[in-house]
Design goal:
It is a single chain. The protein has a five-stranded antiparallel β-sheet. It has one domain. It is globular. Strand 4 and strand 5 form a beta hairpin. The protein is built from one helix and five strands; from the N terminus they run αβββββ. 9% of the residues lie in helices and 21% in strands. The protein starts with 6 loop residues before the first helix and ends in a 17-residue tail after the last strand. The chain is mainly beta. The structure holds zinc ion (ZN). The site of zinc ion has 6 residues, from loops.
Length: 135
């Protein structure tokens, strides 16, 4: 079953994360925009605390949400949970500092790449996707 967290819960994680100021090895850089998961960041340092995945992979849109002309890689790109790639993300918390990140696997031609982005409350938008054809 798919149990995506509520927007209010996502915002709560984001506000909590953005208030963390201590230096930590989980943020070798800011991850303001999407980045490949650095090898220096160990899986054991992150624990899953939630998911934005609301359905089977094939039912989730590949459309992105960029009303202000941002792109996938933009540090200012909105975090729209119903749009790609956020609709494929799980939410992970650093066990050392409790910063919170979004992560998903980007499917390449021959391999998957783990991508990571910081969860910034300012960028979270609640926009419905109307094209999801789940009758
Ligand atoms: Zn950390």
């Amino acid at each position: 079953m798919f149990t995506p967290i509520a927007l209010s819960e996502l915002l709560r994680f984001a506000h909590h994360s953005s208030a963390v100021t201590q230096a930590c090895s989980c943020v070798p850089k800011s991850f303001a925009g999407w980045e490949g998961m650095p090898v220096s960041l160990k899986e054991s340092q992150l624990r899953e605390v939630g998911s934005l995945i609301a359905g089977e992979e094939e039912d989730l849109t590949l459309d992105e949400h960029h009303p202000a002309g941002t792109s996938y890689w933009s540090a200012e790109a909105p975090i729209a949970p119903h749009f790609f790639p956020y609709n494929r993300c799980r939410i992970w918390e650093c066990v050392l500092c409790s910063r919170v990140f979004l992560r998903y696997s980007e499917a390449g031609a021959y391999h998957f790449e783990q991508r990571i982005r910081s969860l910034d409350p300012v960028l979270i938008v609640d926009v419905a996707f109307n094209g999801i054809g789940r009758a």
